[in-house]
Amino acid sequence: MRVTKPALIAVAAVIATGFASSARAQQRTPSDSERVGRNLRMLGLIQGFQMASSPELATAINALLADDGAHMRMAPRRAATAADSARAAEIVKTARAGLSKYTDVKLAERDGYVKFMPWLEEQSIFHYNNVANVMASLGTFDATKPVSLLYKKNDKGLMTLVGAMYAAVPSATPADLDARLPNSIAHWHEHVDFCGPDVDSIRVGSQKVDGPSTARWLAITTVEDCHAAGGRFVPRLFGWMAHVYLFAGDEPKVIWGEEHGSMDVHMHSRPPRNN
Fold it and tell me: What does the pLDDT read at residue 166?
């Protein structure tokens, strides 16, 4: 879907403002509820943003999911134990029983899962997000209520359910993550080091709003380069996430992401951030 230039600029200006407010908020230490509220607002803004797709933008978006992506930071991991493996297997069993009905993507949509960035058809993995489950995950973990369902498009263009994404708040400690999914097995990660255009440059028309321009902003990974480009730097977007490929196979290394191509995010880590 292609929207008119004035409407596109208006939406982009809102998103840029969201980047700016997110950057300001991270100058102090917000509460988990503030962070989640801000993240949901950002998710809604991004969800409502529409533009004509482009090869550059598709490549940039899919790079966000790569194990060696510059915007990816992995949580600390420890050696797996027999108890970890047993707990992980039980989580998979429970999740499969509760989520197998969503092989029908229309049923998932009926139950509140919304396709993320529906205008970008070249996604390697499609996330169908559920805001109610995001809120529920703040206090409890339920393997049958992931924050996202993960689909891949098959050769016929139909959505095939491959897994689910679980979440934890940005302030979660390694022990907190482990209590949800054993961090010796699950690949907990977060998305970091983003740069967005300054809202004034969009309003006056000096900054283009299109796929190639957005891809160039996504290529920026340092605060220095962001400021040099006249942008707004955001150290972290959203919180901790982990993908579990419940329906991609039966081998644990497949289910937990160790053999899943661009979503294999288990190898790379960086020191934790304070904000």
Answer: 97
